[in-house]
Amino acid sequence: MSYLKNEVLDGQQLSTLQEKEVMWYGKAKYGIPGKDLTGITIDPLLLQRHMLFVGSIGSGKSVSLFHLIDGLRKNATEDDMFVFFDAKGDYIEKFYQEGDYVLTNEAEVVPGMVRWNIFDDIMATMPSKREEVIWEIASSLFKEDIESSSSPIFATGARDLFAAILCAKVREIEKGGTVENHATFISWLQVATDVTVRNLLLNHQDLKWVKHYINKSNDPKTNQSFFMHLYQNLFNVFNGTFREAGNFSLTRAVKERGQRAVFLEYDIASANVMKPIYTLLLDIAMKNALGQKENEARGNIFFILDELPLIPKLNYMDNALNFGRSLGIRVIAGIQNVGQVHHVYTERLGDSILSGFGTVFAFRLFDEASRTFIRNRHGMNKKMIAYSASNASKGVQDAIIDGHVIEDWDLTELSVGQCIVSPFNGGPFKFYPLNYTK
């Protein structure tokens, strides 16, 4: 409804950037250019409190993300690094630089392609933390099987067997043995039996309890059930290029940084099989970033997580958002709607994660839950309005009403590519980014 007067008395007000107006001008050397010479300078404070881009398919959120990433990469220092979750290949195509790492399940050789080695990642961890990492890896890879299985005892036992096998093999490496890779490990596993595993664990008294799962006095069918779950999970996860020999360590890459990026190219066609690997890789990166001492933290680690809900629940996502600011962790995520986040993280934890993003770019939204999320970020205001009465003899009518700073129609009336920016430290405003070209 058009009012003759619409004046905010209390609360914030939704504004529109005027011609040549640039938000946070002078706070940084890069930003997102808009129509009519408007723009947004990416104040470091925005990055410190993380940024979320939410909009339906084709609403234009990728354009703003591309502008942002372009500026970040061009202005990165030797102490910075990037971790991309790339579901469509757009980020590799636009932002790959020589020296970056690309993890992909594609057989075709691409620049920067590396093969991950779980053993190298464990060995790159400080010795006192290695077995903790091993158990986290095992828990992550077997989580879905344990939660969905009608007989979780077998999936749980398979997880414990896998962790014990890794512990034993890592101890052999620590004593000067050859570093394993996925090819040698899977080859060993393919011919392993309950006897093989019991012999491997023979000299490790602290792992003796695991042998009870596959005790030689057990019914052979029981032992075989544990191995079936072990094979099922590991052969599915260490599949395609992730079964090949490699020496890339994400832990080492986080320590070295050097302006480099790690691209996790997500193969949607193999999504059900590969989800645990990508979840584990992101968890490893976040765990290492969170494990820094605050007084030793340097530079920034940018997590670019477009289509965030494609990734199963990340164990460290909530901590990265809420405690990562002083450690240089900067999360930049894209989602289509809040329902996707609730589906992955549950409604309560999902709301906690969404509230961890200080600045939100909201594009066209077609679902009520997402519009409500954006609307509630700025709450309500009190307005003085004036309107023409339907009865002409009554003239102009004045009223004081309560409303939302961002109303439903503010979001539904956005053009494709246009957005409402909801910053952590001020009122919201409408912004129309220019198309990204490179």
From TrEMBL:
Signal peptide region: none
Organism domain of life: Bacteria
Pfam families: TrwB_AAD_bind (PF10412)
Membrane topology: Multi-pass membrane protein
Gene Ontology molecular function, alphabetical: DNA binding
Transmembrane feature ranges: none
UniProtKB keywords: Cell membrane, DNA-binding, Membrane, Transmembrane, Transmembrane helix
Subcellular location field: Cell membrane
CDD domains to which the protein is assigned, alphabetical: TrwB_TraG_TraD_VirD4 (cd01127)
InterPro entries: P-loop_NTPase, T4SS-coupling_protein, T4SS_TraD_DNA-bd
Domain Type IV secretion system coupling protein TraD DNA-binding, chain residue ranges per copy: 38-379
PANTHER family: CONJUGATIVE TRANSFER: DNA TRANSPORT
Protein name: Type IV secretion system DNA-binding domain-containing protein
Organism: Bacillus mobilis
